[in-house]
Each structure stands twice: as structure tokens, then as C-alpha cells.
């Protein structure tokens, strides 16, 4: 009974005190109200009936309701969840921006590489034609025939291969381009048809059998299929991206699927193959290497 009275004292205000409950106030009216509440409890009144009578006499403000503290528990949790959501959005946006910059760089670099290669091919072709015309002007027909015969015999003596038509033999090599901040190492896979000197190149962030096969699958084979020409043989060095066990090596498996023969040569710096036209691959890589300083401002713009 006294427990009930005490709990009621804590929620009922003293009418004349400033914000004090009956249990806290020492005024006479608070004392009288405590005694009246005890008497009503003895008379069998319920807590609701006592509170109702006090509200009718003094108004609703006579009852003090303890403030709810549940919201104080939810504020830190809500703040944490909102912070995690914002951090996640910022991270996703940053990753997407980096991927977009990387794709834009690779696209621009491919376009620039093709343009530079075309310019070099034109200049080299003009220089060779001028040199040939100059040489032919001072040679007789008999000397020209003897020179052609001697050249062919010399090639056969050194084991050179004379390509007979487009697709007869292709030459493939990998080339380390450089390192880009935020991306890492950049490698270039290059393919040259040794007869027509048509070249393909593509940039990658790694030098593996998969990237070597991807150049053929993405650029080379579709081009030859479009021209209705079969690629019969490919010449590479003995790098791990080109050589391995046929049953578990991606490049060897792809050549087997496409029914392409594979010839290998020793790697001496770059692919120095004794094949008519295959040295174009070496020359193109050497030109890129010798022009590295000229491309420095371009790299700085992309990095």
C-alpha cells in the first residue's frame, strides 16, 4: 500500500511548488495531499480514480509524466547509419570516376598509337620507295635479276620464310609501355601480318596468355574473317604469355580452336624474326621506345 502511495507521490505535482512532486516537497499542502492519498488508498480507490479526482480539482498539469528517453538511443544509431550511407555513396562515386578516367585514357592512347603508327608507316613507305627508285636508276636489268636471285638464295640459306599471301604468317609480340599513376603497368600486345604489314595493337594492364589471346580474338581474327582470309600461322618469341602446355594454356588453347599453327623464335630484346615483313613489328616497338621522351607531356596530362 505504501508502495502505491510512493509511486503516486512521484508523479503528482505540488500545487504551490515550482516543479516539485509531492515526494520532494516539504510544504504543508503537499503533506495534506499525501495523507489524503493514503486515506483514499485505504478506502479502496484505485490509482486511476485518485488521479482522475486530482485532475478534476487541479487540472491535467497536476500530473508529471517522465520524459521519454527512447529518442536518445535512436539518435546515435541514426547518425551512424546516415554517415555510412554517405561514405558509401562517396566511395562508389570515386571508384566510378577512376574507372571512367581509365577508360578515357585507354581510348585516347589507342587512337594516338594508331595515328602515330599510320604516320610512321607513310613516312617509311615513302623513304623506301625513294631509295628503291634511286637504286634502280643506277642498275641494269641484268644486275637487278642477279640481285634478286642472290637475295633469295641468301634468305633460304639462313632459314628465312618467304610469305606468299596475307594471312600466311602473322608476327605477335608484347611491349612494356610504362607505368601510370592510379593504373599501374601498361603493356601493349602487337600483331603484324608479315605480308601486307597490317598491324593491330591493344593496351593491357598485365602481360598474360589471356591478354595475348584477347588481341587475336578482339582485333585480328574478326578483321581476317571480314576480309575472308584465313590466318594460317603465328610467329612469337618463347615468352610465357605465348608458350605453355596446350591443355591448360589460354593462348595455346585459342590457337587450337582457331586451327592456327604456332612457330616460336628466340627472344633477343624484341621479336627479331627472320621473316620478310616481320621486322615491321620490331621497328614499330623500337620507334615507340625511341620516342618515349616525346610522349612525356602526354603522359603527364593523363596521369
UniProtKB/TrEMBL annotation:
Protein name per Swiss-Prot or TrEMBL: ISSod13 transposase
Database matches in Pfam families: CcmH
Transmembrane region(s): 70-91
Family: Belongs to the CcmH/CycL/Ccl2/NrfF family.
Keyword Protein biosynthesis: no
GO biological process, one term: DNA integration
Residue ranges, annotated region (Disordered): 145-166
GO molecular function: metal ion binding; nucleic acid binding
Domain Integrase catalytic: 162-280
Ranges of biased composition (kind: Basic and acidic residues): 149-165
Species whose genome carries this gene: Nephila pilipes (Giant wood spider)
Keyword set, alphabetical order: Cytochrome c-type biogenesis, Heme, Iron, Membrane, Metal-binding, Signal, Transmembrane, Transmembrane helix
Annotated signal peptide: none
GO CC, one annotated term: plasma membrane
Parts forming coiled coils: none
Cited Gene3D superfamilies: Cytochrome C biogenesis protein, Ribonuclease H-like superfamily/Ribonuclease H
UniProt key word Heme: yes
